[in-house]
Amino acid sequence: MNLAKTALLVIDLQNEYRPGAAWSVVGYDAVLANAAVLIEAARKAGMPVIHAQAWVKPEERDGYARQEEILTEKFRSAVAGSEGADICAEVAALPGDIVIHKHWPSAFRRTDLSQRLAALGIENLVVAGVLTDSCVTESVFDAVYQGFRVWLVKEACGSMTEAMHRTGMLDMANRLYGGGILRLPEALKALAGQPFDGWRCTRPVEFAYALESVDRIYEAL
């Protein structure tokens, strides 16, 4: 992996996913701890650290008109300026990091992320974040379709249930053209410029999984 052309993209690691919140992520403390290790390694390597932060202002809510029809305040998320929308202290942005405010699931939609990556000469994205099956998936597919090589870090992603996380990872793996999935120790090797190993996408839809095979396939990645 050419580190000069690599950035770390961290998606939606915000307070509203903590235990007890409306959108609580299973194992969120571990996800945050693993993401923090990745962020430290990326900074040490001198590569860009990009935080995608869900951040919706009241005047932007019409973009989700159908959701607004059914949404109650209990389940409203990403409210700009709220404590819930703040990036978690464990992975807080530092001076020199890039923060992208988004109000759609994808970090690319109606933001300047593509332009920023192009200006930096980025070709590879190492990705962590939540929810695996929602904002991470949307962002990853947009990245792949725009020509980036995406490397997902298994232990630094999460969702509201383990099943949602695992099937989300497999759905991305099936179309992760040019990239792959890394375990945390291998991701740290990659960010240190060392040889690394991981699962690599070699064909479309490699995993025609069934309910009974999800765990077996996921564990093998």
Write the layout of secondary structure elements.
Blueprint: E1 6-11, H1 28-45, E2 49-54, H2 65-70, E3 98-102, H3 113-120, E4 124-130, H4 132-145, E5 149-158, H5 162-173, E6 180-182, H6 184-191, E7 199-200, H7 214-220
Parallel strand pairs: 1-2, 1-4, 2-3, 4-5, 5-6
Antiparallel strand pairs: 6-7
Helix pairs in contact: 1-6, 4-5, 5-7
How would you describe this protein?
The protein is α/β, with parallel strands linked by helices and 221 residues long. The protein is built from 7 helices and 7 strands; from the N terminus they run E-H-E-H-E-H-E-H-E-H-E-H-E-H. It has helices spanning 28-45, 65-70, 113-120, 132-145, 162-173, 184-191, 214-220; strands spanning 6-11, 49-54, 98-102, 124-130, 149-158, 180-182, 199-200. It has a 7-stranded mixed β-sheet with strand order 3-2-1-4-5-6-7. It starts with 5 loop residues before the first strand and ends with a helix.
* Strand-pairing-aware structural class: alpha/beta
Q: What's the mean pLDDT score? A: 93
What's the Cα radius of gyration?
17 Å
Helix content: 25-40%
- Uncertain runs are none
- Overall 3D geometry? globular
Number of strands: 7
Strand-residue proportion: 15-25%
Strand order of the largest sheet: 3-2-1-4-5-6-7
Number of helices: 7
Distance between the termini: 19 Å
Order of helices and strands: EHEHEHEHEHEHEH
Largest sheet: 7 strands, mixed
